[in-house]
Design brief:
heterotrimer, A alpha+beta (339), B alpha/beta (314), C alpha/beta (290), A: 339 residues, alpha+beta, eight-stranded mixed β-sheet, four-stranded antiparallel β-sheet, 10 helices, 12 strands, globular, B: alpha/beta, five-stranded mixed β-sheet, 5 strands, 7% strand, 4Fe4S_Fe-S-bd (chain B), iron (chain B), 4Fe-4S dicluster domain-containing protein (chain B), 4Fe4S_Fe_S_CS (chain B), metal-binding (chain B)
Chain lengths: 339, 314, 290
């Protein structure tokens, strides 16, 4: 059996400095008081200890991106493509929950007949390096959603928290190239250490059978009760690593030209499903709250075979009214089905 | 169970059982010791779920907007800061006075859950800045009072059952610092100010939590809801975000009740109150000192014309 | 000790690199005024001086139409070799602007989207078309198909209604083209008549009850305003039409058309991919949220 390779935590910047020679390296960092993944530069305030407040989906699915340019002069007009390709990039220090989130985004953007190239080209250019999580945060519950915090086998390379060092193994061709580079630079050495057990979770919920349960609960009064305190803001969706809904909107430079943008949108907003002419299939908070949780826990599993909640806990941490998905799962589980 | 919680439950039970109100908005104990989120109840037996402590920070008045077109009378609990939101909604003709039953509670000052280090271990936490700066710890309007609360339309000391606790915790002890952040930003050079706000606006996700919790943001259709007119853009770029932030601040100018909820709920920690306070400071300087949402019959500075109003722009 | 696994992430290099969200440039070649608030737009792409349809659509499929600088929306399409035909009612910002344009206008189109009607399954059957108002637009794409493949189907019967005689769309088809087709009965009604109107006056559901179409070996294709659908379904049930044989098309707000943007879902179905054509039997298994 091969021995685990590792580099001391003190050498983290040296490792990142080496990696940025070949790629943009997104690292968990503190930017203007908020932790998020951002391209590493010398001097970046790196935050490896806890997961970021904002999910890393921004690296693959930015909140706003141009998809094409248009012009309109009288009866003439034109559409000019925007190149979706990006240079090589590395997502460094992803937690298992966020890796699982990327698998959910993959299902949406890369399968079912069409590939969204704006996501696809970034995804293809990205090497994913996961980091084993030994100290879950106050709002984390990934283990309850079937995610293993210690490691995730879908990444290109897995890092392990060994206390004073990070262990690393390659899991794909991309990951092997990266580990080889680190070896060549003399940054890795053999270790006998292994990652300790993940600490106990504060939040736990039994999500077993939730999809089947919700199939019987579309007309349940629970949705009305749950939605009463909801503000219908987009905090939960915009922090979520799996929420993928977007709008295609126009941004005009002047009356003749502009760009079409793809930007985040959420089913929480009242105009989200509103049709020209005024009909709204989800006219009130109740329908919108139901849509969000049904999508995560029932519709997505029905369509793609996996839960769309990875237990990262960001929506729980930041919801202005503490409408917590763990409570929803618990209450739905306890409720008498209406069907 | 604390005395205020007990009185809350008793009154709620009575109001719902007698049919005086159809629904009641209060707080309940959340999933962790440092969470006391909103709760809406309609049945007397649900009154047992009500709870009040130093984490019942949510201003509940914005939730009344969901019932503005209904005929049902709704009761809700208000702390001092929250109560100004009721005046806001009444002055803006968003709710009818006879359709809301306001229950005043005394406030011991709200704790800052961001200071939690161990989610399993309850400890004494520092007050939120907005509580240190609080000038209206007592309800400015109420139909019923519990916990010994007293109505006061003027800046005052905390009253009621929690008065000494509030004083000990420092409620209102930093009133003088209310405009400190505004002054600090004003002292910056133009370039520094630009860099400061640019960094803040870069963070904005346009989730609209600030707008949706605000009792002054009560437009039936928000301009930011629709990009069809071409006035605003859905893209979350620093420029568009700044346009949103400034438009929001100017739209609540003279109407912001300083509950600080916009800033508390911002998932990106944008100092939204700095912008609101800057506008308040300017209005105070131009039109004389006033506090929005403290006097139901008073005229709002920007809703009233006086012959001696400043008019440099004319 | 951790065991090393090699798990290469699937590469995407074999996927064709086209941006599915960019419209194809096309021109409006002809605009037909149907009613005061409905126009039919013929849209073609120009290639070597010849105009052809930008893409072909199956009956019931959708096309995304964009007017640069105004916006983009999904419409039900009628197929023709020389152009794509979209009948559009004035209901909002984009459709208002579309009603102002002239032939020659450059527009963007993308598609075709959606499942369309499973026409092969209807072979040898009688077809009952029921339409209300602008709801005749998606129905018309099927009618045209049936007329073009007349021998594949049994009796054809169209029951159509609108608010007033002036609101009847496709009058040239209703009163000229279709009645001339073999075994094609066309029954038209209006909610309120006028001095010239000699046809039936009354709502569509009542008219169906009066006409009593035979459910035997018949597929019913139904499209119209929700209130008409609601009452019509009751009547069809009474007449003996089974949910499997009542087919309709749904309308939801759409942005991408390719099942990514999320907003046209009904339960785990995306109307842009899995619809817009659903049988009543299918709808009964889906959440009632459309």
């Amino acid at each position: 059996m091969q021995r685990l390779k590792a580099f001391p935590k003190a050498k983290l910047t040296a490792v990142l400095e080496m990696m940025i020679q070949k790629a943009t390296v997104w690292v968990p960092s503190m930017i203007a008081g908020v932790s998020r993944f951002a391209p590493y530069r010398p001097g970046t305030d790196i935050q490896m200890g806890t997961n970021t407040a904002i999910s890393p989906k921004e690296a693959l699915f930015p909140s706003t991106e141009k998809i094409y340019k248009f012009s309109a002069y009288g009866i003439d007009g034109d559409f000019e493509p925007v190149d979706p390709s990006v240079g090589p990039q590395i997502l460094f220090g992803l937690r298992s929950c966020d890796m699982q989130g990327i698998l959910c985004l993959d299902d949406v953007f890369l399968t079912r007949g069409y590939v969204d190239d704006f996501y696809g080209s970034k995804r293809e250019a990205t090497t994913l390096i996961t980091l084993g999580c030994v100290t879950p945060g106050a709002d984390c519950f990934c283990a309850s959603m079937g995610v293993n915090p210690a490691e995730h086998d879908a990444s290109d390379a897995q890092m392990y928290d060994l206390g004073d060092a990070y262990g690393i193994i390659a899991r794909s061709v991309k990951g092997e190239a990266l580990v080889k580079d680190l070896m060549a630079a003399g940054l890795l050495s053999d270790t006998d250490k292994s990652q300790g057990p993940t600490a106990d979770f504060v939040l736990k919920v039994d999500s077993e059978g939730i999809t089947e349960k919700l199939q019987q609960m579309f007309d349940h009064p629970l949705w009305d009760e749950l939605s009463r305190k909801c503000l219908n803001c987009g905090t939960c969706a915009y922090l979520c690593p799996t929420c993928h809904c977007f709008d295609i909107a126009e941004k005009k430079r002047n009356q003749h030209c502009g760009v079409k943008i793809k930007c985040w949108d959420t089913c929480m907003f009242s105009e989200y499903a509103l049709m020209a002419g005024g009909h709204n299939p989800r006219p009130s908070k109740k329908e919108r709250v139901r849509q969000r949780f049904m999508h995560k826990l029932r519709y997505f599993p029905e369509r793609y075979g996996k839960l769309q909640c990875t237990g990262c806990g960001r929506c729980i941490a930041k919801c202005p009214v503490n409408l917590e998905i763990t409570d929803v799962i618990k209450l739905a589980g306890e409720a008498k089905s209406d069907g | 169970m604390n005395q205020i919680t007990k009185e809350m439950r008793d009154l709620a039970r009575e109001l719902l059982a007698s049919g005086e109100v159809k629904g009641l908005i209060g707080w309940t104990k959340g999933s962790r010791w440092y969470l006391t989120p909103p709760l809406f109840i309609t049945r007397p037996e649900e009154a047992e779920q009500l709870y009040f402590d130093q984490f019942a920070v949510n201003n509940l008045t914005g939730l009344l907007l969901d019932y503005r077109y209904g005929d049902d009378k709704i009761a809700l609990f208000v702390k001092g800061c929250d109560s100004r939101g009721i005046v806001r909604l009444l002055q803006d003709h968003q709710i009818k006075r006879e359709k809301v039953l306001v229950i005043g509670v005394p406030c011991m000052g709200m704790s800052d859950k961001k200071a939690v280090t161990d989610p399993r271990q309850p400890v004494e936490l520092p007050l939120l800045d907005k509580c240190l700066e609080c000038r209206y710890p007592n309800p400015v309007i109420a139909d019923r009072l519990i916990g010994g609360a007293l109505v006061s339309g003027e800046p005052s000391e905390p009253k009621g059952l929690t008065a000494s606790e509030a004083a000990k915790r420092g409620v209102g002890s930093k009133q003088a610092d209310r405009f400190a952040q505004v002054k600090a930003i004003e002292a910056m050079s133009a370039d520094e100010k630009y860099a400061f706000w640019q960094a803040q606006h870069e963070k904005c996700l346009r989730c609209y939590a600030c707008r949706n919790i605000c009792p002054a943001c009560n437009c039936r259709e928000c301009i930011f809801e629709s990009d069809k007119k071409g006035w605003v853009n859905k893209s979350a770029t620093p420029t568009d975000n700044a346009f949103f932030a400034v438009t929001r601040a100017m739209h609540v100018a003279g109407r912001c009740v300083e509950c600080g909820e916009c800033e508390r709920v911002c998932p990106m920690d944008i100092p939204i109150m700095a912008l609101n306070r800057k506008v308040i400071q300017d209005i105070n300087e131009l039109f004389g000192e006033s506090d929005a949402g403290t006097d139901l019959d008073g005229k709002m500075p920007l809703g009233l014309f006086k012959n001696d109003d400043p008019e440099e722009f004319m | 000790m951790v065991e090393q696994k090699i798990n290469p992430v699937a590469t995407l290099s074999d996927v064709k690199r086209i941006n599915p969200l960019i419209p194809m440039k096309a021109k409006v070649t002809r605009i037909i005024d149907e009613t005061a608030d409905v126009k039919t737009f013929c849209i073609a792409k120009e290639e070597a001086g010849r105009f052809t349809a930008p893409f072909r659509t199956a009956p019931g499929q959708l096309a995304m139409l964009s007017l640069p600088g105004v916006g983009e929306a999904m419409f039900s399409a009628t197929d023709a070799p020389e152009h794509l035909q979209l009948s559009i009612k004035k209901v909002g910002v984009l459709t208002d602007a579309l009603h102002e344009i002239c032939p020659g206008q450059t527009v963007g189109v993308r598609g075709p989207y959606g499942n369309g009607f499973p026409m092969d399954e209807y072979k040898g059957k009688n077809i009952l078309f029921i339409g209300g108002g602008i709801g005749l637009a998606p129905v018309r794409s099927v009618v045209r198909y049936c007329v073009d493949h007349r021998d594949d189907f049994g009796q054809l019967h169209l029951i159509y209604g609108s608010r007033s005689p002036a609101d009847l769309v496709f009058k040239y088809d209703l009163f000229d083209t279709w009645p001339a087709v073999r075994d094609f009965k066309v029954s038209v009604t209006v909610d309120r008549g006028d001095d010239q109107w000699k046809g039936n006056v009354g709502f569509v559901p009542a008219f169906i009850e009066q006409l009593r179409p035979d459910p035997e070996n018949t597929v019913c294709i139904l499209c119209g305003p929700p209130i008409m659908i609601k009452f019509t379904l009751g009547i069809l049930d009474k007449l003996g039409f089974t949910p499997e044989n009542v087919i309709t098309t749904l309308e939801m707000r759409m942005k991408c058309g390719i099942g990514k943007c999320g907003r046209c879902n009904i339960g785990s179905c995306f109307v842009c991919l899995d619809g817009p054509v659903f049988s009543l039997a299918q709808l009964k298994t889906m959440p009632n949220e459309y």
